[in-house]
């Protein structure tokens, strides 16, 4: 059964190399592993099921500060927010269903500063 899980992950896996910043024990068999990904200037936390891997739990705690090369899967979920100016969308003339809406006032921006979308 474990071989089936590994082959499923390998078929759709993304590959990364990063520096392990932290390992936190969760509800067994889950761990949270924070990894700094230097290629994209990002630190991401991954959920790791130690029963689905060949990783010894005692060794896992000693990996903080070590670089690792790993494969993972991700369910990409769009996180879009509609921004309007004077009641009109800034990015498009139409509204898409399912977009999050935030109501408020943008402040602290000077007229000469560029706005990045």
Task: Walk me through this protein's architecture.
- 14% of the residues lie in helices and 36% in strands.
- The protein has helices spanning 2-12, 57-61, and strands spanning 14-25, 30-37, 42-49, 67-72, 81-82, 84-85, 88-89, 100-101.
- The strands form three sheets. Strands 3-2-1-4 form a four-stranded antiparallel β-sheet. A two-stranded parallel sheet has the order 5-8.
- The longest helix is centred in the first third of the chain and has 11 residues, at 2-12.
- The model is unreliable at 1-10 (pLDDT under 50).
Q: How many distinct beta strands?
A: 8
Average pLDDT number: 77
Order of helices and strands: HEEEHEEEEE
In the CATH scheme, the class of the domain at 2-72 would be Mainly Beta
Spatial shape: elongated
Q: Pairing-aware structural class of the strands and helices?
A: mainly beta
Features:
117 residues; mainly beta; OB fold (Dihydrolipoamide Acetyltransferase, E2P); 4-stranded antiparallel β-sheet; two-stranded parallel sheet; 2 helices; 8 strands
Summarize this entry quickly.
The protein is mostly beta strands. It has helices spanning 2-12, 57-61, and strands at residues 14-25, 30-37, 42-49, 67-72, 81-82, 84-85, 88-89, 100-101.
